[in-house]
Design brief:
It is built from 39 helices and 24 strands. It has about 950 residues and is an alpha/beta fold. Strands 5, 6, 7, 8, 9 and 10 form a 6-stranded antiparallel β-sheet that branches. Helix 17 packs antiparallel against helix 18 and helix 24 runs parallel beside helix 30. The relative contact order is 0.07.
Length: about 950
């Protein structure tokens, strides 16, 4: 691994809008994707638009270099890694425009599938491709790989639903294939391409056996090689070019924008699990099930079922099976209306009941039951990949065969696992398409393992092609199967693919070694090594699912990048590359540690349940000095005084000129460091109010734990703050409540935990849990907290303490949003003390903590109780204020809130101003007020105001 290289490209040719970085931390962070390949780019380019990409092509060609596009980094076949120039297409190209009442989505390659579908949801539509990685995979990758998924098959994938593309060809020509004169533009700007594509098509049509073979191959899901079915399906060179680019994995052109035809969402869904005694029975049932028009038919083999039985939320129908050779099919019926669903479900059940099932069939529309069934299917990858030995790589493969060959293929695949000693491998996938996935755990740091992988691959190729299938169904050819394209298609068609590549990219600048390779061993080059680093993150599979929700993704690093850099540093140390190690460590402090919000949103998205914040907190603990740790321990002993002093300081600062106070804190930051001294600005409120007094009425129905941030930070403008608002609402609803002893000196522990001061955290844990245990009358009463992040902190504190203090298992802690929505609102209504006149509109900022607590629904329910219109920005995310992180590094909050604040500003202007802006946590409210310039308050404050007598 090399350290930072000299600048490789001519910046004048690139232009001022394209950023270039060759810092080692940037190159290594972006080198990793979900595949089992690893190449380190010499530099990373970040163009802003199509013209910038065209200039990048010119600069790369002039320098004799090559480039590879990288967006979401969820690809599994090695098509998004490069040892030369990597082009970041996710940082920009994020536009979404919905046209024709939702029937068309005009989108940039940097937006995720989920983001597009979220925007389309209001029209009750979605895009066709439905990959399992929709949370993180981007439109650029979906089109580049011709991705499909569980339901779309080959009728609603990218190939079938692209309306037009904005292409940047390797020559620099920019072509909108949807333009009325697109053919004339192509013929004028690229006459050789226009005529060359037609000539290749004529050559193919003159070979009827090859045409028949193409039709057979593309009657299945097939992402092997180029989509040369375009030569059969179209006779217009623009349409041929457009559809050849789909699935070309960035080797023929760049897609700067796509117009996609959308499909209707059928919202009524019933889900069921069909369990068979063996694979043979399950496969025999497939044709009849397909005729039922089921939206999904997902296969799980016996090994999958055994893994599923180890999941914490396994359905009883699976837990009760004595798994021998069983197999299961997860099926779904999708309909547009309740009546239609009832009819379709009745028909399906009648068919199911005639099948040789090991367990009686049932279909459920219950959301929790459906989620439980899907957790089995989706939990397979989690369970197997998460439990793999440290140092190994999880390989998720996919193949496709004609449906009538699926049984034989699966049976022989199981034999191959045994032959090559791959233990714990499972088979699952899209049975109705003949497309299955299987998971292998392999290590690539010794010759014996690589040799085993080579032998297995050879046998796999023989098996799949012998069954008339394709070696890649959904995941793209990439590097992993590029050497086998000739084996699958033969010389005539493979040579034709090479002719297409040379016609469009004569200089070979785009993604060499991907899709096509004449080196038989190229799939064994640049295999990823996964050194053991930390227990918190060793099970990371580098999938990237965590990245879209990370608040620091646009300013420093994502959770995946924080993890892989730890691996890179371990590898550099092992190799004795001290210069690289020193450079990575120096930059990692700010990029990896200081600017992590430790908000836990990455854990929500992670398929193997990693909270990267746990790693960062431990690193902060290791870096903390004994003096600093001791001071925080002292603070834990007298926290009430500390918060009162902090509140007084903010009140004094609020009365003084902002430049003066800001200047003092800037001086302190220069001396003590930006990660120690917070930066004061005008966005911070005055100090808060005194903590509520201890009380314990005999008829108490709850314990109120007022968060200490109410003492530190005062409410917005004229408000009374969430602590007083909750107490007023409880009184108004006739709910007596207790207040713990020394409530002003108690804290959820987050300030200590997030900074890594474990001594003080342990001390506070002992004090808080003991106090709440007594106040709750030993678990009899629920504990209600008025700040969502503090509620989550109390949950974490309790969870981490149960082994040492098992008696506290009876404590029930919940957020004020959920308690007020469930208990207070109904009582206010019953007492005729509810909201009598709603405000017109309200903007809501859900938080990372309401998400983790499952309280976002309660937050919006309270908003609905006070306003006729509730607006939740589609691009909302963690504000990254993160306690004091937003004061230590305000640039982090500014970056994290940029998308949401722009949405709020536009929506506010459309309505001539929202009547209120709300959230569920004071520091988040401060962060959003700072970002938007609008007065965010806790939603309970608004409810309290509107229910005053």
């Amino acid at each position: 691994m090399s350290t930072t290289l000299a600048h490789p490209l001519d910046t004048d040719m690139l232009g001022p809008d394209t950023t270039v970085t060759s810092r080692s931390i940037d190159r290594f962070a972006r080198a990793h994707d979900a595949s089992h390949y690893l190449l380190i780019p010499d530099a990373v380019l970040t163009p802003r638009d199509a013209a910038g990409v065209a200039r990048a092509f010119d600069a790369v060609r002039a320098a004799g270099r090559t480039l590879t596009f990288r967006s979401g980094g969820t690809s599994l076949s090695g098509q998004a890694v490069s040892g030369d120039i990597l082009v970041d297409t996710r940082s920009h190209f994020r536009g979404i425009q919905i046209e024709d009442d939702g029937r068309i989505a005009r989108v940039g390659p940097g937006v995720t599938v989920r983001q597009v579908n979220t925007r389309l949801g209001r029209y009750k539509r979605k895009i066709g491709p439905d990959p399992a990685s929709e949370i993180a995979c981007t439109i650029g990758g979906v089109i580049a790989n011709n991705s499909s998924g569980m339901a779309c098959g080959i009728t609603e994938n990218s190939y079938q639903t692209v309306e037009s593309l904005l292409l940047v060809l390797p020559s620099g020509t920019i072509l909108d294939t949807g333009a009325p004169d697109a053919l004339e533009q192509l013929q004028s700007a690229e006459p050789e391409i226009a005529s060359g594509l037609l000539a290749i098509r004529e050559r193919l049509l003159a070979a009827p056996d090859s045409v028949a073979f193409i039709r057979q191959q593309f009657s299945m899901k097939n992402t092997m090689g180029y989509g040369i079915n375009a030569l059969v399906d179209f006779d217009d060179p623009v349409r041929i070019l457009e559809h050849l680019v789909i699935g070309s994995e960035g080797t023929l052109a760049f897609v700067a924008e796509a117009r996609l035809r959308t499909i209707e969402i059928r919202p009524q869904i019933a889900t069921g699990l069909l369990v068979f005694a063996g694979l043979a029975d399950a496969m025999a049932a497939l044709p009849g099930l397909a005729e039922q028009g089921l939206a999904t038919i997902e296969l799980m083999d016996a090994a999958s079922l055994r893994v599923a039985q180890g999941l914490s939320d396994v359905p009883a129908s699976i837990a009760a099976i004595d798994v021998l050779d069983h197999a299961a099919l997860l099926v779904e019926v999708h309909s547009s209306s309740v009546d239609e669903l009832t009819s379709a479900s009745d028909s399906a059940l009648a068919h199911f009941n005639a099948l040789p099932l090991a367990v009686t069939a049932a279909l459920t529309t219950d959301a929790a039951e459906r989620a439980s069934l899907w957790s089995v299917r989706k939990g397979l990858y989690t369970a197997v990949a998460g439990a793999r030995p440290s140092g190994t790589t999880a390989l998720l493969e996919d193949i496709v065969v004609p449906v009538d060959r699926l049984l034989t293929t699966c049976e022989r695949l199981i034999v191959l696992f045994e032959k090559h000693d791959y233990e714990g491998s499972v088979i699952f996938g899209h049975a109705k398409d003949g497309n299955v996935h299987f998971l292998l755990n392999e290590r690539f740091d010794d010759d014996a393992s690589v040799a085993r992988y080579r032998r297995f691959t050879a046998d796999l190729v023989d098996l799949v092609l012998g069954q008339g299938g394709s070696l890649k169904a959904e995941h793209g050819t990439g590097r992993i199967m590029a050497p086998f394209v000739r084996r699958q298609y033969g010389d005539f068609l493979t040579d034709m693919m090479w002719d297409i590549k040379r016609l469009l990219d004569p200089a070979g600048i785009l993604n060499p070694g991907v899709v096509l390779s004449e080196d038989a061993d190229s799939y064994l080059y640049d295999l990823k090594r996964v050194p053991t680093v930390e227990s918190e993150v060793d099970r990371c599979v580098e999938c990237g699912y965590c990245e879209p929700t990370c608040p620091s993704k646009d300013i420093t690093l994502t959770p995946r990048q924080r993890i892989v850099l730890r691996r890179d540093m371990a590898w550099a140390e092992e190799q004795g590359d001290h210069e690289l190690l020193k450079e990575l460590r120096a930059d990692y402090d700010y990029d990896g540690v200081q600017t992590c919000a430790v908000d836990g949103m990455c854990a929500v998205a992670c398929p193997v349940d990693i909270n990267t914040g746990d790693l960062v907190r431990r690193l902060r603990a290791e870096e903390a000095s004994k003096v600093e740790d001791g001071l925080w321990d002292v603070a834990a002993k007298s926290w009430g005084a500390v918060t009162r002093i902090g509140g007084v300081a903010l009140t004094v600062a609020d009365a003084m000129p902002v430049p003066l106070v800001k200047g003092v804190t800037q001086l302190g930051r220069a001396v003590l460091g930006a990660d120690t001294m917070p930066l004061y600005d005008a966005g911070l409120p005055r100090g808060g109010s005194k903590a509520p007094a201890t009380s314990s009425p005999a008829d108490a129905q709850a314990v109120f734990f007022g968060a200490c941030i109410g003492t530190m930070f005062g409410p917005e403008d004229h408000g009374i703050g969430s602590r007083d608002a909750v107490q007023a609402l409880l009184d108004r609803a006739g709910i007596p409540f207790a207040i713990p002893d020394d409530t002003g000196g108690l804290c959820c522990g987050t300030p200590w935990k997030s900074k890594g001061h474990l001594t003080g955290y342990d001390r506070m844990t002992e004090r808080v849990l003991a106090s709440l245990w007594v106040a709750s009358r030993f678990g009899e009463l629920p504990v209600v907290c008025d700040a969502a992040s503090c509620t989550e902190g109390l949950h974490t504190m309790l969870e981490k303490s149960l082994e040492e203090y098992p008696e506290y298992a009876g404590l029930r802690i919940e957020d004020a949003t959920t308690y007020v929505a469930r208990e207070v609102l109904p009582r206010l209504t019953a007492l005729n003390r509810g909201v009598t006149k709603k405000i017109d509109s309200i903007a809501v900022h859900p938080t990372c903590s309401t998400t983790a607590l499952g309280a976002s629904g309660a937050l919006t329910a309270l908003a609905s109780a006070v306003a006729d219109e509730v607006y939740v920005p589609e691009g909302w995310g963690c504000c990254a204020f993160a306690g004091d992180r937003g004061m230590l590094h305000p640039e982090l909050t500014e970056s994290a809130t940029a998308v949401e604040s722009a949405e709020v500003a536009a929506a506010d202007a459309e309505r001539n101003g929202f009547d209120a802006f709300v959230s569920a946590n004071r520091t988040c409210e401060i962060g959003m007020s700072r970002a938007t310039g609008k007065p965010y308050r806790h939603v309970v404050e608004v409810l309290e105001e509107l229910t005053r007598p």
